[in-house]
Amino acid sequence: MLQIDLNGRTALVTGAAGGIGRGIVATLVGAGATVVAADLDADAAASVAVDHPGSVVPLTMDVTDEAGVQAAIASLDGHADLPAPVSLLVNNAGIAGRTGMPFTRLDQSDWDLPWQVNVVGPFLVTAALVEQLAQTGGSVVNIASVSGRRGFTTSPPYSASKAAILNFTQGMATDLAPRGVRVNAVCPGMVLTPFYRQQRLAAAVNDPKLLEITDEEFFQDKASRLIPLGRGQQPADIAGAVAFLASDLASSVTGQALNVDGGLVMS
């Protein structure tokens, strides 16, 4: 029977303390990997390690700080709890920014942070790890979004940044293929995050009844109407795709983007 086996491998996951990040960490640990859980919030990263004793090393990292990224990666050299150099990088850290409004109500600051976190961040972290990835014949998985496949009017900075990371994934895949490194992306569909609270409150300006329901009810109603399979995605759904792309089962897959969205965007 085909099985995902990541035993003996070291993975680094950015944004590891968020909902999708925690799901990815749990799945990779379940497949046998030792995981470096990198997050801007040191206490949150430590809590991920507590959930997986002996299998997770917490790491504080601001993916937008070039010197900080390099220092954080350097601190892992010779770490007693890591069985090998990093052979899997999951660029998961991301931010939606302000959403739920037309682009004419945004200003430059609304564009700057999503771009720095969602686009520059993966570049900085990948660049800092590229020698380890090449040494191990490793793999990079970028967490993009179906918003990068189709622009949404209520979140133009986020959609644009995710379109950029899809393009960057192809560029990295071409650049790193001669060094034996594969680069792919996963495009989540609708996963319940604070993003949908912002959307609900913004929509409530025109529909006050939305103030009377919960974020989950708003999310479930939207998912049931928009997604052919009739439900939103769970972190484990995204994590399963990441584990597949990271594994030897996908040894001939590079430069690709896999939608995990219940059919929301078919491409």
Fold and architecture overview:
The chain has a seven-stranded parallel sheet, sandwiched between helices. By secondary structure, it is of the alpha/beta class. It has two domains: 208 residues, Rossmann fold (3-Layer(aba) Sandwich); 41 residues, no CATH class. Helix 3 runs parallel beside helix 4 and helix 6 packs across helix 7. The mean pLDDT is 93. The chain has eight helices and seven strands; from the N terminus they run E-H-E-H-E-H-E-H-E-H-E-H-H-H-E. It starts with 9 loop residues before the first strand and ends in a 7-residue tail after the last strand. 43% of the residues lie in helices and 14% in strands.
Keywords:
single chain; 267 residues; alpha/beta; Rossmann fold; 2 domains; seven-stranded parallel β-sheet; 8 helices; 43% helix; oxidoreductase; Sc_DH/Rdtase_CS; SDR_fam; NAD(P)-bd_dom_sf
